[in-house]
Write a structure and sequence with these properties.
Two copies of one chain form a homodimer. The first copy, chain A, has 375 residues and is α/β, with parallel strands linked by helices. Chain A has twelve helices and 14 strands. The first copy, chain A, has two domains: 220 residues, Isopropylmalate Dehydrogenase; 142 residues, 3-Layer(aba) Sandwich (Isopropylmalate Dehydrogenase). Chain A has a ten-stranded mixed beta sheet with strand order 2-1-3-12-11-4-5-10-8-9, with helices on both faces. Chain A has a two-stranded antiparallel ribbon with strand order 6-7. A two-stranded antiparallel ribbon of chain A has the order 13-14. In chain A, a hairpin with a 2-residue loop joins β13 and β14. In chain A, α11 packs across α12. Bound molecules: 3-isopropylmalic acid (IPM) (2 copies).
């Protein structure tokens, strides 16, 4: 019997509510499984950890995360620990990513049937058929380069940050994008996004992406987009970016958030942050990759505690966890098809299972229960 | 009789075609004017300058621009001078901005009646009533900080760029945003965009914007948005950003392009890059500000020479030139209302004056002629 350790970080705001549903789904899948055992350990992280321990990322949490096969996270932060607080949750998240070495952030921007496009802010003619994976470099670039705050000598009236990339950092994220592209047949095209007409780090980026793909994955189509033009295309004709959008940390932060509002509901979308290239589902040799999985929505303090948050982003994050870190592709697909069924089920009044974000009035728990039922 | 020198830089692609129409409009306004004389001088700039002189920004062009009261530009660049060319147009543009000291880039994202929202990729319910001015810092930040290319010692496998801001740079652009906000009654709110949860330069930005507005313009409402969340809001509920969006160079590059596709046609939108804060239209003492005016669209090589490009972005840029650099507010308004009339005129078949980008088949010249006629 295979045994896996999964650390659960419920976090703040709606985090605990949505994580509880994903845990419910995982338990339903594995509680009576003869071949797989999941050991779930819940730890403090984020604002709740600051309140209890004074730190966003307590040493015991970090230790547990490092020893785990994978981590499932809710969401962190909230007005209680805002910009003016001495200790804030966000640096804890950056420290956790860095300590775990999860350099590859993967975000599908589409889930489920086109029945959801009614929720998109874009016209149906623009948004129908959009299918983009954003692959964002997560532990390099301007997030982790040297910086200087204002009021520090010399030049106290100046502050700066460094956007820095090495050849090796760009190679490894390019290989992750390639693996994601190859998981489809025919392989998806890769759209690499940079600002090579201005930035030296982007010129390195463009050169290394090109060389890596040409020499290691010649079967994948590649084009390059400037970040300003990509931000425009995502709104005006997003289908032109169908495939994999590969980009550095800061551009990825901006573009993946922009992309995530296109398909209609943020609440549905999962993300995976990996410490290595994922194995192809078709390959016979699964290589485990430790990873941090979380929905892409925030902690939504305004609706916390009301039991109305959409747990699907977290449930689908759990599916990605099974796929990429535990090699349980079949179980991942079970979850995904159960979610799809739940979303597509209709009753006399129309779509049956919709939380408030999708215009319905079904609660967080009911969605989880229904998905467990379908499983 | 007041006399002004205006340098005209037609540039590449559709640049010469659209600039010709704006020049036509300016001539119609002032050719027989008893009080204002406009001296228009055309110079080489961009790809066409590279072809003729080997440089994107020839010394004589720079000299003329420095001596002028204002500059009207078409668009530059094209595949002929792509990333692999030794000399490219873009560094010429950055050098021109820096040499002229035009630190404030101003882009309204709305023009004309709501009749145009049909062209927006966003649903009408989302895009109706959106009215945003983007104010982008244009000669600081990561565009002009120190950088190191790959293959340069030490650490040849690494490249980096520096995002750097001083207190003074942020103060002066904040004052421009404040002037734009105060030109409306009641003053528009300012949404300052940064990434203060990660970047030191953004923390300086946020602090200086806050202090400058609180002490000098307490009547203006201010809030702060993270750049990822602003990129999302622009698509999902852009009206929440109505007012002035104030941001640094790179974020402004991305967000202003993203914002520009919201109202429906890129081809309509002008921009102004100013070397100082603009005078309020209501103030009695106009202070001239030298400036560079251009439509926000690119050189569109695919449609160059066909006579179908939309000249309205350039014509409205000429209006901004009259307003901000020459203090001819009334003439600016004359152009703007003529354009509005042209856009709103209908014939039996529907909207009469639409170029291809707006779904019509009226040519570049016809639009210019018609606007002159209305004037
Ligand atoms: C919280 C913040 C530091 C973080 C980031 O910028 O990476 C967030 O926006 C994200 O995208 O996960
Ligand atoms: C051409 C390029 C260098 C320029 C920029 O990034 O500033 C352009 O995108 C713009 O916004 O005017």
């Amino acid at each position: 019997k295979k045994s896996f350790r999964v650390v659960v970080l419920p976090g703040d705001g709606i985090g605990p509510e949505v994580v509880a549903e994903a845990v419910k789904v995982l338990k339903a899948l594995f509680e009576e499984s003869p071949d797989v055992e999941l050991k779930l350990e819940t730890r403090l992280f984020g604002g709740c950890a600051i309140d209890e321990t004074g730190e966003a990322l307590p040493a015991s949490t970090l230790q547990a995360c490092k020893e785990a096969d994978a981590i499932l996270m809710g969401s962190i932060g909230g007005p209680k620990w805002g910009v003016n607080s001495k200790v804030r949750p966000e640096p804890g998240l950056l420290a956790l990513r860095k300590a775990l070495g999860v350099f590859a952030n993967i975000r599908p921007t589409k889930f489920g049937s086109d029945s959801l496009v009614v929720n998109s802010p874009l016209k149906e003619s623009i948004t129908r058929g959009v299918d983009i994976f954003v692959v964002r470099e997560l532990i390099g670039g301007i997030y982790f380069g040297e910086r200087k705050e204002q009021d520090v000598a010399p030049q106290e009236n100046v502050a700066w940050d460094t956007m820095i990339y090495s050849v090796e950092e760009v190679q490894r994220i390019t290989r992750v994008a390639a693996q994601i592209a190859l998981a489809s047949d025919p392989p998806l095209p890769i759209h690499s996004v940079d600002k090579a007409n201005v930035l030296a780090s982007s010129r390195l980026w463009r050169k290394v992406v090109t060389e890596t793909l040409e020499s290691e994955y010649p079967q994948i189509k590649l084009d390059h987009q400037l970040v300003d033009s990509a931000a425009m295309l995502l709104v005006s004709s997003p289908r032109k970016l169908n495939g994999v959008v590969l980009t550095e940390n800061l551009f990825g932060d901006i573009l993946s958030d922009e992309a995530s509002v296109i398909p209609g509901s943020l609440g549905l979308l999962p993300s995976a942050s990996l410490a290595g290239a994922p194995s192809l589902p078709s390959s016979h040799s699964f290589k485990p990759t430790s990873g941090l999985y979380e929905p892409i929505h925030g902690s939504a303090p305004d609706i916390a505690g009301k039991g109305i948050a959409n747990p699907i982003g977290t449930i689908l994050s759990a599916a990605l966890l099974l796929r990429y870190s535990l090699g349980l592709e079949k179980h991942a697909q079970l979850i995904e098809s159960a979610v799809r069924k739940a979303l597509d089920s209709k009753n006399a009044g129309g779509w049956e299972l919709r939380t408030a974000d999708l215009g319905g009035n079904i609660g967080t728990k009911e969605i989880g229960d229904r998905i467990v039922e379908i499983l």
